[in-house]
């Protein structure tokens, strides 16, 4: 193909070289196609074949010397022509090349052809015009060639781009399908800090198990409030726990939606940077959280209620909490913070924000209250416990106010005080109370009937475990009460004067007598005691104590420094009665009992007749108290008198002048002794 022939459509020529055509028209007349030029490629079929062929006229060669003169003349004019001056008007060429395949003519050929074909009447074109025209033709050709090459490059580039676009679209569709259809997570994916990229759901669950997902993501949230108040919230109950199976589903769902190209975009972003899926959006059960917060704040307020203080005896300080009873906690703020922590997976919260106005307590009133006299600790028999002592103290109010001002809210303030302790404190009372057995007595119930033993048990039950405070008095009749069937007493043998009868409560005098001996050995003060009318077989003479409702009584007082406790009971066999008195042996003193007995004779027979008729027994009991070192301290003497039964008195026959014989029946003796029913 020749250089002037098109290898692209005409429409592209118009698009590319329209500007060149306009430029040529402004520079000179339009080109007239040569009638003999070859037909265009896009001409209708048959045009070129049918066109009449004309012979080209041979060009006359230039005469000798003419060519040199012409060229020199043209060169001189070009040199004399100013560059910026007006251009001379160019004459139209006689003939232009027709057809795209015609070979361009040289400037000399153009001038010769113009001279030959020019009509004789027209002026000859100057050599300058011919040279300029030749230059324009050459420039136009160069521009057209350059444009053709540029168009080819653009066309190739367009084809390449379209091809690449098609290839990329096909590749993107394939990649998007593969990403969406994959059964593994996208790469670079983390769930709660655990790497699960490229794993299947089963592998994801295994990785979460290895990372102890349930322990770290579930469990409880511990909340610590001031004053050592704390509570815990369960993640599962609060609705803030994601099971590992759900976490695995969430990891796979990331980048596996219905939009395949969106999945591909997510995949590419995931390759560029790691993705932390974090926690699933939970709905916290605020009612559950609020209930726990309210309960904890209530506990805090109960611990800080009032302006109470305490005394630290060991350190001799007054302990008080600044702001107690005046501050509280913001329940709503705590609830909000707890909910936020549950969502973020927190495990512990320490809350210290306190609200409320803090006022200084009345230290002067506290000092006045502490300045009272100390009170001894004592045993409360009704509660069966030791009541602590009350300390006296002196408080420096100025020092207390200074320390309070420097302390922070809810700080514990220790104010030095001067303590005044009582003589008996709870500590030393607990060490010594009922620590020592002060006295006891054991008597036997041999030969007693079942009813008598029962009466003894009932009487013992009335005061077994009874405690007497220092200075307190024990009255047997008051404690045991009237001996009635309703009170549990039964008929049993007893004394009535000098006779034996059956009466309700028979046998309870053995209880009072045994208690009397225990009180004697315990060194207690005996206030009232009466001996039996006749001797008893369970105790030596002079050591018994009879009772009769409501007049004859046995009474004693606890004259010791500490409380005493009475223990009384009958053994299981019903053969022994044991009574013990427990208390505190302060000084180690002890008691020794002595007793003496002798026969008692009727004075009438002895004085008038000189006859000794035994009608009873006399007895003397001596209680001697000794110090711990054995030195004598005190002595008590008690005298007793016992009658013989009537049938045991041997009254002798008395002979007088008036009668042969006269037997004394002892009527005078009986008149001197009233009848008393005793146990």
Describe this protein's structure.
The C terminus is likely disordered. With 679 residues, the protein is of the alpha+beta class. The strands form nine sheets. A four-stranded antiparallel sheet has the order 6-7-12-11. A four-stranded antiparallel sheet has the order 13-21-20-14. Helices cover 36% and strands 21% of the residues. The longest helix has 55 residues. The chain has 20 helices and 27 strands. It has four domains: 132 residues, no CATH class; 120 residues, no CATH class; 73 residues, no CATH class; 193 residues, no CATH class. Helix 5 crosses helix 10 and helix 6 packs across helix 9.
Approximate strand percentage:
15-25%
Shape: rod-shaped
Instruction: Determine the fraction of residues in helical runs and give it as a percent range.
Output: 25-40%
Low-confidence stretches: 19-72, 79-103, 657-678
| Lateral strand order in the biggest sheet | 6-7-12-11
| Average pLDDT number | 79
Structural class: alpha+beta
Number of helices: 20
Which value, in Å, is the CA radius of gyration? 70 Å
Give short descriptive properties of this protein.
679 residues, alpha+beta
Task: Describe the secondary structure blueprint for this structure.
Elements: H1 10-27, H2 47-50, H3 66-80, H4 107-117, H5 127-181, E1 189-191, E2 194-195, H6 201-210, H7 213-217, E3 220-225, E4 229-234, H8 235-238, H9 244-253, H10 260-272, E5 275-276, H11 286-303, E6 309-312, E7 317-321, H12 331-344, E8 348-350, H13 363-370, E9 378-380, E10 385-387, E11 392-395, H14 397-406, E12 412-420, H15 426-432, E13 436-444, H16 450-461, E14 467-468, E15 473-475, H17 476-480, E16 491-496, E17 499-504, H18 508-521, E18 525-528, E19 555-557, E20 564-570, E21 576-583, E22 590-601, H19 603-609, E23 614-626, E24 632-643, E25 653-654, E26 662-663, H20 667-671, E27 677-678
Parallel strand pairs: 1-5, 3-8
Antiparallel strand pairs: 1-2, 3-4, 6-7, 7-12, 9-10, 11-12, 13-21, 14-20, 15-19, 16-17, 16-27, 18-19, 20-21, 22-23, 23-24, 25-26
Helix pairs in contact: 1-5, 5-10, 6-9, 11-12
């Amino acid at each position: 193909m020749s250089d002037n022939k098109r290898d692209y459509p005409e429409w592209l020529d118009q698009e590319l070289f329209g500007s060149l055509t306009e430029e040529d028209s402004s520079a000179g007349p339009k080109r007239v196609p040569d009638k003999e030029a070859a037909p265009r490629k896009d001409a209708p079929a048959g045009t070129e074949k049918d066109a009449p062929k004309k012979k080209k006229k041979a060009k006359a060669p230039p005469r000798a010397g003419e060519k040199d003169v012409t060229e020199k003349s043209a060169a001189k004019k070009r040199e004399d022509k100013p560059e910026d001056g007006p251009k001379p008007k160019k004459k139209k060429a006689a003939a232009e090349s027709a057809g795209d395949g015609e070979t361009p003519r040289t400037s000399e050929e153009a001038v010769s052809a113009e001279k030959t074909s020019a009509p004789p009447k027209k002026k000859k074109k100057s050599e300058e015009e011919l040279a300029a025209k030749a230059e324009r033709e050459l420039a136009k050709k160069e521009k057209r060639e350059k444009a053709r090459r540029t168009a080819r490059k653009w066309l190739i580039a367009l084809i390449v781009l379209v091809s690449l676009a098609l290839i990329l679209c096909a590749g993107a569709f394939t990649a998007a399908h593969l990403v969406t259809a994959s059964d593994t997570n996208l790469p670079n994916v983390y769930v709660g800090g655990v790497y699960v990229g490229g794993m299947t759901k089963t592998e994801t669950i295994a990785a979460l198990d290895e990372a102890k997902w349930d322990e770290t993501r579930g469990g409880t949230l511990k909340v610590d409030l001031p004053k050592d108040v704390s509570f815990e919230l369960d993640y599962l109950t609060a609705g803030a726990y994601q099971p590992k199976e759900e976490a695995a589903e969430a990891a796979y769902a990331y980048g596996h939606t219905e939009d395949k190209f969106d999945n591909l975009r997510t995949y590419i972003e995931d390759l560029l940077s790691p993705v932390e899926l974090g926690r699933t959006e939970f709905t916290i059960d605020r009612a559950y959280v609020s209930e726990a917060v309210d309960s904890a704040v209530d506990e805090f307020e109960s611990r800080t209620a009032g302006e109470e203080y305490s005394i630290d005896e060991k350190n001799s300080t007054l302990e008080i909490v600044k702001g107690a009873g005046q501050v509280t906690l913001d329940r709503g703020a705590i609830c909000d913070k707890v909910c936020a922590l549950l969502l973020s997976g927190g495990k512990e919260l320490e809350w210290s924000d306190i609200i409320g106005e803090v006022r200084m307590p009345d230290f002067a009133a506290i000092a006045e209250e502490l300045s009272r006299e100390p009170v001894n600790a004592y045993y409360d028999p009704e509660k069966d416990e030791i009541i602590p002592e009350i300390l006296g103290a002196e408080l420096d109010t100025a020092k207390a106010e200074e320390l309070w001002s420097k302390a922070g809210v809810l700080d514990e303030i220790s104010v030095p005080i001067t303590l005044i302790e009582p003589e008996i404190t709870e500590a030393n009372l607990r060490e010594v109370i009922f620590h020592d057995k002060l006295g006891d007595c054991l008597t036997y119930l041999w030969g007693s009937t079942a009813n008598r033993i029962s009466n003894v048990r009932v009487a013992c039950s009335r005061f077994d475990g009874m405690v007497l405070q220092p200075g307190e008095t024990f009255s047997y009749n008051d404690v045991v009460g009237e001996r009635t069937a309703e009170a549990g007493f039964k008929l049993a043998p007893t004394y009535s004067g000098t006779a034996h009868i059956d009466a309700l409560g028979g046998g309870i005098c053995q209880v009072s007598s045994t208690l009397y001996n225990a009180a004697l050995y315990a060194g207690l003060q005996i206030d009232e005691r009466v001996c039996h009318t006749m001797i008893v077989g369970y105790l030596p003479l002079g050591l018994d104590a009879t009772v009769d409702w409501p007049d004859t009584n046995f009474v004693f007082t606890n004259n010791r420094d500490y409380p005493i406790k009475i223990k009384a009971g009958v053994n299981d066999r019903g053969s022994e009665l044991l009574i013990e008195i427990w208390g505190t042996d302060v000084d180690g003193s002890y008691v020794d009992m002595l007793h003496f007995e002798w026969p008692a004779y009727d004075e009438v027979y002895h004085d008038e007749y000189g006859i000794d008729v035994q009608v009873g027994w006399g007895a003397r009991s001596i209680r001697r108290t000794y110090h711990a070192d054995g030195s004598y301290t005190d002595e008590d003497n008690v005298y007793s008198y016992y009658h013989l039964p009537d049938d045991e008195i041997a009254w002798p026959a008395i002979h007088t002048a008036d009668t042969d014989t006269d037997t004394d029946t002892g009527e005078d003796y009986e008149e001197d002794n009233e009848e008393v029913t005793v146990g």
